[in-house]
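Board notes (copied after class):
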Amino acid sequence: MFILRQPSIAAYFCSMNHPALQAISPIDGRYHHQVNSLSQYFSEAALMRYRVRVEVHYLLFLADQKIISLPAGISPSNLDTIWINFSDEDALAIKNTEKTTNHDVKAVEYFLKERLTQLGGEAILEWVHFGLTSQDINNTAIPLLWKEALEQEFYPLMEQVLTKMQEQVNAWKEVPLLARTHGQPASPTLLGKEWKVFVERLKGQVQALKGIPHKAKFGGATGNFNAHHVAFPNTDWERFGFEFVQSLGLHRSRFTTQIEAYDAFAAQCDALKRINNIIIDFSRDVWTYISVDYFKQATKAGEIGSSAMPHKVNPIDFENAEGNLGIANALYEHFAAKLPISRLQRDLTDSTVLRNIGVPLAHTMIALKSLLRGLGKLVLNETKLHQDLEANWAVVAEAIQTILRRENYPQPYEALKNLTRGKQGITQQSMKEFIESLDISPEVKQELKAVTPHNYTGIKFDLS
């Protein structure tokens, strides 16, 4: 008799030595090795580091604009080392301070003041976070980390996918393929061209995503530079804000509440969702091509496709991609719908949501890596493609009736419809016999006989 036993306390603590096994989310457990590079942008320690980076940059910008002077012995380079060399110990120090402050950005401010004191910068301590609210830091740090994650992680991986797909476009540009519209045999196409459809779609949407600005908010407690203006009424703080944000490679929203409106970020989420939808569409098509045996999949020694059926080689990489992209899209959709909505000048609902922005990107990158693996396993089964074309001579009916239209033959569409629609056993021979029965010139008959399912593939596009 099988008895389910609860693990002992000792066994439980032993398992805690393997944190990946205890992770609630698979992106921090099973899949962590695939996306661990994202920790430098989206972990809590990373957010602290970006906040410190913005605070330091603000302090240096105040000095650059001659609003403050750096004390002797304090240079831009040794201030920058505070965020450049930011460590886990620094993050833990901020967390310990937060236990008292119960405010994460204030804990960062105190951390920076402590480091300044160690460097001999006591004279400028109160210029740290001068005139700012926490959202001036958050709504600058988060767009910055998001921008750098896309540029350094997502776009390069996306380029790998597009490069692999284009390689297959080039390899298969002359391979005829029985097209299917509504799931039914249709005018033949070229395999490389069908791959190119997705390459073009993805390139267009990636370009659209790159065109959306990374917007930041920087303007004090309610967006009007109240504190800055009351302290220095003759300073052009609006110009200062634009130039400061621009110096970080971001775009400043001019009119804001306490927070950035997130409209641009919502547009980025929508663009990423469109990219993911295209990849889902592509993954399902490849899955279908595998299911009808147009592709075999290269096997790897030791791998198992089914615990029961030894012969199975399942298209798991394309299924994995589809599943992860679905999770990503659900979150992107929530971000795009929720973040632009905030009560009056600000509520806190954006804060907890923004802590999750790395999650859909992680699932997207897991999907892209799965897709790359799957594409690398594809082995073209040209014999099967040839057999399917040969078994569907009815698809040249379109070609024959179109040439007959050109020749002003009476009711050519209807003639081909009567011959082929819903009929079985349409072969090269039956098509030849039909053509011979037509009252047309020998030259046109020869032209019609030259059309086959293997060469009726349309114009030869430049697929490069």
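Comment from the instructor: Residues 9-14 have pLDDT under 50 and may be disordered. Residues 134-171 form the longest helix (38 residues).
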